[in-house]
Amino acid sequence: MRKTLYIGLWLLASSALAAAQLDPFPQIAASYRVEIDGVSTWEKQPAKRLPPASLTKLMTALLVLERGGLQETVTVSEAATRETGSRLALKTGEHLRAEDLLAATLLQSANDACHALADHLGGSETAFVQQMNRRAQELGLHDTRFRNACGHDAPGHYSTAADINRLARELLKHPQVVPLTSQLHAAITTQEGRQYQLSNKNALVGRYDGALGLKTGYTAKAGTCLVAYARRDGHEVLLVLLHGKDRWWDAVDILDLAFDHARVTP
User: Choosing from 77, 86, 109, 159, which is the catalytic residue?
Assistant: First the structure.
């Protein structure tokens, strides 16, 4: 019913919406930005600074991919094993490929895997966070500031829907990303022979036609967050939601309308 109502209203005023960049989803409380085929189409408070939760890991992933060395061996630090929240329960001294820790970071949002990568690339999480902030400035993410690599709530740790959109676009330039984030399940194995099973936390993947990732996030302060990327019928949609209340239904409503818009817009 909700989708039918939105589509009907949109068909009555689609050209006006596109021209004026109006918000076709006034009932959605989240700050968001929608990009259809590379064009920013709808948004609400896209420059509002909010805690991004585990969407932070998109920057961690970007730095890993830009560094290369995905086959490098990472030694899990004691600091990484002390991570809280979503985690794999890695053991101090275990050895894994950077590529496998990246999979755990993006699919399962494992904080210990993310922290291990930060230590590996930066020497410490603190030093790595400096790299994150430097790269954010290089990308023009002037409303973004990181205080940790994984997305824990912290004073001065914030971003915006517009900045996360730009960050996601930069990440999508790397061909490894979509094959990774579109998996439902994966398994990684340490050099010591211990195996960890991974499950994709993005509920759209495997359930929503064309969904390919990219990242979920949640903390008490950030609420539910999402970067959803989908392709269908030759069109692509990139959606960023921050501080959502009902992210899965909201994402489906927005994605459906976005693909309908793409089909009828010259």
Answer: 109
| Distance (Å, whole) CA 22 – CA 6 | 13
Among this protein's residues, is 54 annotated catalytic? yes
Query: Per-residue pLDDT tens for 51-82?
Result: 999 999 999 999 999 999 899 999 999 999 99
Domain that residue 65 falls in: 13-264
Tally of structural domains, the chain:
1
Does residue 1 belong to any structural domain of this protein? no
109 is catalytic: yes
Q: Which of 57, 86, 182, 215 is catalytic?
A: 57
Active site residue 14: no
Inside any domain, residue 4: no
pTM, entire model:
0.90
